[in-house]
Amino acid sequence: MISARGLTRIYPRESDAIVALDSADFDAKSGELVLVTGPSGSGKSTLLSIVGLLETFTSGTLSFGGTDVSAASEAERARLRRGRIGFLFQDAGLIERKPIVDNTALPLMYRGVPTRERTIRATSALEAVGLGDRIHHTPGQLSGGERQRAGLARALVADPDLLICDEPTAALDADTASDIARRIVAARERGAAIILATHDRDLHSLADRIYELKRGKIVDVREKSS
């Protein structure tokens, strides 16, 4: 699904430059759970933004689904994001004024799915994460854990090939974080590749591969078999 070689991201400044990612080799296959770990500022979010086609990179190569997208236009990157990638972030990123059924349906709207089918699929996705009785609530009427479950429903509603999760449990209590993590891991059964940036060591035993970053460099890669 994702194969990157020598990924480097440099942010220029007047006096010097910030190397946010330094010559990273990275892989995530369909049906795998890949964890990205490391301290704050180590480059985790930069790596996820690049492989999720949200951000460009300074040098290296990136293949998505067997196609080289290193020089893809923004229009092509946007098409791939809409059609094949789901995102879940720490704050869920929900639109406050919209009921969560409408929030959840947004990826389907971008794909041109008819309104009635969008509502049916969004409702089903919310029921699957335990929010069937909350579909007409706005994000402000939900708890933190419920917001994250709604965010996960939105990330999965279009059956993405790639699910990217950036610290989705960091602001949650232990029980709620465990529940969200369990639901994310279950998405592997759909055949999606899951890339998850996390500090939660309880997930290590479930991962197929773990990448550890420090100061923009991948310093360790651990496989499930090891």
Which descriptors apply to this entry?
226 residues, alpha/beta, Rossmann fold, 6-stranded mixed sheet, 4-stranded antiparallel sheet, 6 helices, 10 strands, 31% helix, 28% strand, ATP binding
Walk me through this protein's architecture:
Residues 2-226 form the ABC transporter domain. GO terms for molecular function: ATP binding. Pfam families: ABC_tran. Keywords: ATP-binding, Nucleotide-binding, Transport. This is ABC transporter ATP-binding protein. With 226 residues, the protein is an alpha/beta fold. It has one domain: P-loop containing nucleotide triphosphate hydrolases (Rossmann fold, 3-Layer(aba) Sandwich). Helix content is 31%, strand content 28%. The protein has six helices and ten strands. The strands form two sheets. The chain has a six-stranded mixed β-sheet. A four-stranded antiparallel β-sheet has the order 2-1-4-5, with helices on one face. Helix 4 (115-128) crosses helix 5 and helix 5 (144-156) runs parallel beside helix 6 (174-186). It is globular, with a radius of gyration of 17 Å. The mean pLDDT is 89.
SSE arrangement, N to C:
EEEHEEHEHHHEHEEE
Lateral strand order in the biggest sheet: 6-7-8-3-9-10
Spans of at least 5 consecutive residues with low confidence:
none
Write down the domain tally: 1
